[in-house]
Design a protein that fits this description.
By secondary structure, the protein is mainly alpha-helical. 54% of the residues lie in helices and 5% in strands. The protein has a two-stranded antiparallel ribbon. Helix 1 runs antiparallel to helix 4 and helix 7 packs across helix 8.
Length: 181
């Protein structure tokens, strides 16, 4: 049961994206319960979870009616807290954040990964299409010293370099956009 060197899971109650913050907490908790605390029974794991959820989480939990039997089931906590944070998702604000994300000095791969994370909360019907459009627009408007920063190159056409995660359609979009500008 040695947790030395393993960061303690923490719920970020100040996050503007509480569903994502809870998702990260839950993933971290499951890794610990599947690893170093695997031998602990579920009731003890629930106690650990209540420690890690923090003061705010315990205040929220104390407003719920939970039977003694359900209080010994980890899924009770996961389901209840998921239900609590999910209405906190604001797709309009998520779209604002998605559309205003700028590549800055990060690699294209990192930028696309960040867009995928942001896009998951936007409730778009086709997140990949939105990512392609945003990536093309950002690539076209980024300063020349930033266009494009890639760690691994899949192909280059007419001087346009795209990352391995980029699709041929994205390459065509970049070329077409460069031609139109």
């Amino acid at each position: 049961m040695d947790l030395t060197g393993i960061p303690v899971p923490v719920m970020n109650w100040e996050s503007t994206n509480q569903p994502e913050a809870f998702k990260k907490l839950k993933q971290h908790v499951k890794l610990i319960f599947g690893g170093p605390l695997k031998e602990k029974d579920e009731a003890v794991q629930c106690t650990y979870f209540m420690l890690w959820i923090g003061d705010r989480g315990r205040e929220i939990f104390n407003t719920w009616h939970v039977t003694p039997d359900d209080a010994k089931k980890l899924n009770t906590y996961f389901d209840r807290f998921q239900g609590y944070v999910q209405p906190k998702l604001n797709p309009i604000f998520a779209r604002y954040k998605f559309n205003n994300e700028v590549q800055k000095d990060q690699s294209v791969e990192h930028f696309i990964t960040k867009l995928r994370i942001l896009g998951s909360d936007c409730q778009y019907t086709n997140v990949d299409e939105m990512i392609s459009a945003t990536t093309v627009a950002t690539t076209m408007t980024a300063p020349k010293n930033v266009q494009p920063r890639v760690n691994s190159v899949d192909y280059a056409r007419n001087g346009t370099i795209l990352p391995k995660c980029a699709s041929p359609a994205m390459g065509e979009s970049v070329q077409l956009t460069q031609f139109q500008i």
